[in-house]
Design a protein that fits this description.
By secondary structure, the protein is of the alpha+beta class. Helix content is about 40%, strand content about 15%.
Amino acid sequence: MLNRSRLLRELQLISGQLFTDLSGEFSVARASWERIISDATFLYKIKGLQTSTPLPTWDNKIDECFLANKPIEAYEVIAIDGSQIYPDRHQGTSCFLINIGTVILRYGIPDKSVELDSVPYVFLGDEDKNIEHVSADYINLRREEFEFEAGLALAQQLQNSHTSPSLLLLDGSIIFWYLEGKDPELRNQFLTRYFSALYNMYEKQIINASYISLPRSKELVNLLKVELSNGNLDKTESYESISHILDVHIANLYLQPGERTTLFKHNSKITSFYPKELQPYFYYLHTGFEIARIEVPAWIAHNESTIETISRIIYDQSTKGRGYPIALAEAHEQAVVKGPDREFFYHLITKLGMNVKHRPKISHKMMKKRSLGI
């Protein structure tokens, strides 16, 4: 068990480093941001730099704000989330489970109800012959694939059944930066699967967006680094003073509740693999509770009225959810796999094995956990 008194002493020892005073960094960041705003040539400077650092680009004024809190009476939102049970070698099986939660919420649409569902998918762990070892990382990649496919299938099913605006809302990023460092074969395999689903959404004109709560992105911060280093990002000492600043801190300098930033185009190395219709764009939205990051593909980003509708729906959903889109919260509840669910999963495997006169080989460590005694 946790020794709480010792834990308290340990936390007190690091309390000085645990909470950092950012007031000095805010001052530097604010001054740099104001210089960027007043520099009419700054975007051209960005486009002329040769660097591997992701630098976003934009079309409108960089500090332009747009209202997102206009009331929207009738709309439909589809939300998708996923969870999993990883293989446990102590349970004597390589089986894993992916659970996909889906939610449909409708507002101002007569004779329509809430729809909640979850679908479990079970795998033996040897389905992919190109994978020697089924890791948690691989399962996470598969889960995201199933989330995209579930969202596409559900949105297609409902596409002709409504006249009000409809939004497919996903949790997490559509910028697959985590695949950059993967083995090329694995990277291409999953990029192909992800793009297939997202491109189908484009062809079917399924409006979709991704919501990122408490984002840790630093793409706008990279613009500050360019300004502070006068375009020489190798001079790291010139921007050490903003090492803790995030994009949300910059957005908070000028966004009011109910407003969003202009759209920014993401330009990291991974985007070279994206079809032009799926090139990722992002903006920040002040929901009144937090500044969230919203990501959309290019074909949606280029339609101003669609972006306005997406923003109004997400703002309304965040208001109804008291800080987080209620549809995504409900999708998470449908998807989440809790401790008793995990135990039930392995209990069923054991029972099915006994039915065919095969008992899974459970490790002594696991047996000991289940029968602790003194």
